[in-house]
Amino acid sequence: MKRYIWTTIIISIILIIAAFLLGRFAFPATDLATLPTPELSEGERGELGIDRNVNESTIDQYLGRSDAVYRDVRMLKDPGDYESIGGDSYLSGFVKGFEVVPLPYLVNVTGLPESVGSTYTGKTLFTNNNGEYTANYEESLDVLEALFPKDKVIFLMCGGGGYSGMLKNMLVTLGWDETKIYDVGGYWFYEGENNVPVKRTTSDGGVVYDFYKVPYHEIDFKSLTEN
Q: Which pTM value belongs to this model?
């Protein structure tokens, strides 16, 4: 009888340990708790929506998280004249781990610097009218949730930080959790170790953009149902 009891106890302990280890490996603890609460930078960067703590200078330490998605919201070639403000109208590179979802295809862009002029003015998933967002397609919200999952931490990046701030405002207005969205700022100011260059100078001095490197999400408006 005693032997049976001890055997039962030992088996129970083994099962408890096994369950604990299985839980650790099957559902590994994330480092979500190490993320600071989103907080606006001071001055002009804050006006754009760029985060004080999670930005171009620190994003490297937050890459590769299983609880997050990384989205660069620039166009491959933006009609706006971003060279006029020291940027690049082309997507000249990106941070490793980020996937491209162009903001101008998600919503009409407003409030650009006068020198930049106008960006893309074609079809969009939503229309922004003074902070009120109207879906232009029956599937607009579904597409947005697929690209920016509500159950994930979302890191947003663009060229200078403006597009990212615009998108964060839209997501929060449409019901996303503000505390899980970070406007990382602009690729143009990134000097970290995870740069993936797209712009390349050829042997004859020309410039080409290797867009084949870019993990790109295309929105097929022809497949959507207009409201």
A: 0.83
